[in-house]
Write a structure and sequence with these properties.
- The protein has two domains: 195 residues, 3-Layer(aba) Sandwich (Rossmann fold), CATH 3.40.50; 99 residues, Putative methyltransferase TM0872, insert domain (DNA polymerase, domain 1, Orthogonal Bundle).
- It is built from 13 helices and seven strands.
- It has a seven-stranded mixed sheet with strand order 3-2-1-4-5-7-6, sandwiched between helices.
- Helix 2 links the parallel strand 1 and strand 2.
- The N terminus is likely disordered.
- By secondary structure, the protein is of the alpha/beta class.
- The chain binds S-adenosylmethionine.
- The site of S-adenosylmethionine has 22 residues, from helix 2.
C-alpha cells in the first residue's frame, strides 16, 4: 500500500510511504496540537508518526520507541524533516516514564501504541517470526535480548511449555504440542521455524488443520509473546503512559489479538472508573472492509482511545 507524499508534511527521500494500520482512525482520534509532543511507543517504520507529524507541524516533537534497532534506522530516514525534533529511543516502551524523565519531558500531548511486529520483521526469515518461511527460531524483537525462541523451545520443561501455549496462544492442544516438542528435542535441538511448524502439524487432528488461520499460528504467537514478554510490557505502558499525558492528551492503542485487547479494555475501564481518563468510544474501532482488502494483516486490529482528565 502506498500513500502520496504530498499528504504529509515530511520531506523524505523515498517516493512512497508505508501506510500503517487504521491510519484514518488514528489521525482522527489521536488529536494533537501544532507544536505538541507525541510519544510513538512502537515506531516501526515510522508510518503512524509520519501521518501524525502533519498535526504537530514543523515545530512539533516526536519521541519514538522501538526495541528493534533496525526499525529505528528505517524510521529515522522516513521521519527526516517531519518535525523539529525527533528522539529515537532504542528501548522497551515499558520504560516510558524513565526515558521521558531523562529527556527532561514532564508531560506529552499524545501516546500511540501499535502492538505486534512490523512487516519488515515478519518478512525477514532470519528473524524467525514467520510461519511461512524457514529460518532460525529467534523471534526476538530486540536483537540484543537475552532469550530467543530457540532457548525457550529447547530448555523449558513440558509443564512450562504447556503454560505458555495455553496462556499466550489459547491453544486447545497445548498438552499434545508440548509433549511432542519435548520428545522431539531429545533427538536433537529444534532449530528452525520449519521444524517447529512440522512438530505442531504432526500432533493436531486433521479437522483442526482446516481452519482459517494456519494451525501453528497460536504456537508461534505464544512463543513470540513469551520471548518478548509482550503482555507484561503492555500492562506497564498503559499505567505509566497515562501518568505521562497532559490533561486533555490522548492515548491510543491498536491491539491485534484478544489477549492484548482484553488487557487494554480492562485497564482503560479501570482508569475511567478512577476518573483518570474518559473513554473516547466504548467499543473498539475495527478496520474498514476496504482496508482489510488492501492489507489483510489489518484484519484483526482493534483500536481503543482514552483522553486524560
Ligand atoms: C506493528 S509495528 C509498528 C508499526 C508502526 N506503527 C508503523 O506505522 O510503521 C510494532 C513495532 O513496535 C516494536 N515493539 C513492539 N513491542 C515493543 C516494546 N515493548 N517496546 C518497544 N518497541 C516495541 C516492534 O519492534 C515493531 O517495530
Amino acid at each position: 500500500m502506498t500513500l502520496a507524499l504530498e499528504q504529509t508534511g515530511c520531506d523524505m527521500g523515498s517516493k512512497d510511504l508505508h501506510v500503517p494500520v487504521m491510519y484514518a482512525e488514528v489521525e482522527q482520534y489521536l488529536v494533537l496540537p501544532v507544536g505538541g509532543c507525541l510519544v510513538d511507543c512502537t515506531l516501526g517504520m515510522g508510518g503512524h508518526s509520519q501521518l501524525l507529524a502533519k498535526q504537530l507541524g514543523k515545530t512539533g516533537r516526536i519521541i519514538g520507541f522501538d526495541n528493534d534497532a533496525e526499525a529505528l534506522k528505517i524510521a529515522e530516514q522516513n521521519l527526516s524533516g517531519c518535525v523539529e525534533r525527533c528522539d529515537l529511543i532504542h528501548d522497551n516502551f515499558r520504560n516510558i516514564e524513565k526515558v521521558l524523565n531523562n529527556l527532561g519531558v514532564k508531560q506529552v500531548d499524545g501516546i500511540l501504541v501499535d502492538l505486534g511486529i512490523s512487516s519488515f520483521q515478519l518478512d525477514d526469515p532470519q528473524r524467525g517470526f514467520s510461519l511461512k518461511t524457514d529460518g532460525p527460531l529467534d523471534m526476538r524483537m530486540n536483537q540484543e535480548g537475552p532469550l530467543s525462541a530457540y532457548d525457550l523451545v529447547n530448555s523449558l520443561t513440558e509443564k512450562e511449555i504447556v503454560k505458555i501455549l495455553r496462556e499466550y496462544g489459547e491453544e486447545r492442544f497445548a498438552g499434545r504440542i508440548a509433549r511432542r516438542i519435548v520428545d522431539r528435542r531429545e533427538e536433537s535441538p529444534i532449530e528452525t521455524t520449519k521444524e517447529l511448524r512440522k512438530i505442531v502439524l504432526s500432533v493436531l487432528p486433521s479437522g483442526y488443520r482446516r481452519q482459517k488461520i494456519h494451525p501453528a499460528t497460536r504456537t508461534f504467537q505464544a512463543f513470540r509473546i513469551a520471548v518478548n514478554r509482550e503482555l507484561d510490557a503492555l500492562e506497564v505502558v498503559l499505567t505509566k503512559g497515562i501518568d505521562c499525558l497532559k490533561p486533555g492528551g490522548r492515548m491510543g492503542v491498536i491491539a491485534f489479538h484478544s489477549l492484548e485487547d482484553r488487557i487494554v479494555k480492562h485497564k482503560f475501564r479501570a482508569l475511567a472508573k478512577e476518573k483518570k481518563v474518559e473513554l473516547v468510544f466504548k467499543k473498539p474501532l475495527r478496520p474498514e472492509e476496504d482496508e482489510i482488502r488492501e492489507n489483510p494483516r489489518a484484519r484483526s486490529a482493534r483500536f481503543r482511545v482514552v483522553e486524560k482528565i
